[in-house]
Amino acid sequence: MALEGLQLGQYRLLRLLGSGGMGEVYLAEDARINQQVAIKVSRIEANPYPNNSTTQDVVRLFQREAKAIASLDHPHILSLFSYGEENVNGMTVIYIVMPYRREGSFINWLQQRGNNELLSVQDVAYFISQAADALQYAHENQIVHQDVKPSNFLIRTNKGRSKLPDLLLADFGIARLSASTSSASHAIRGTPTYMAPEQWSGEPVYATDQYALAVLAYELLAGRSPFVGRQEQVMYQHFNVQPQPPSTFNPQLSKDVDAVILKALAKQAENRFLSISAFANAFQEATLG
What we know:
The protein has helices at residues 53-70, 106-111, 121-140, 197-200, 206-222, 231-240, 255-264, 276-288, and strands at 7-8, 11-20, 23-30, 35-44, 82-88, 91-99, 143-144, 153-156, 166-169, 176-177. By secondary structure, it is α+β, with helices and mostly antiparallel strands. The chain has 2 domains: 7-99, 2-Layer Sandwich (Phosphorylase Kinase, domain 1), CATH 3.30.200.20; 106-288, Orthogonal Bundle (Transferase(Phosphotransferase), domain 1).
């Protein structure tokens, strides 16, 4: 059932922006103040067993995402306006209201650059620094994002640096709050390309986000992911195969850059940098060498 035109609280859904495993995102408007927002929606169809585990899991994940974002106040994290639940024709609709960024996502920006040239290592460092700053703040608030990838960063035009936009970390739908003791927190969730070995095992830690950000950096530097293939092949490589240095695919990269990326991609979390900020700082220093 299409939800365009549906009224959720003071917001009217205008059009679908995108969808994924955790729900659909709509452009919506509060006509009273002429404000456009993005609303992430999940619907629970009428069910004779409303307390079953699937229904409870959907509600729990949405509430957890809302709580995670609400606790964060950072210039590179997309903020939360509100959370709500509505009953529509016997169907429960739960939703999260966030700012609408008309510039789109980081993956859109990368695809629309208009050339096949890789970003300079300095430009990559600029983005990695912003991403790491947001993730470090989340970690300091006991939150592991667990789904760091280009499509989960929105962009904001930076008028002071017209060439490059700012990043805004979004989609905390599978984030893990360290204070949570729910057994469901050990469920395996994420995007295979970016998942560290411990995440495949259902035991993510703060360094899990560092690993994912290193995969993202590798893609920007080398023009490809460190591991490719079918999902089971990618999983095997994350556990057992050492990635080739990114300079294998981009000879302009220094050995120092290689060393930083490969350390952040260590199979054991304890062998990575002590924090995601330490990774970003080491990467920045390597670009200056």
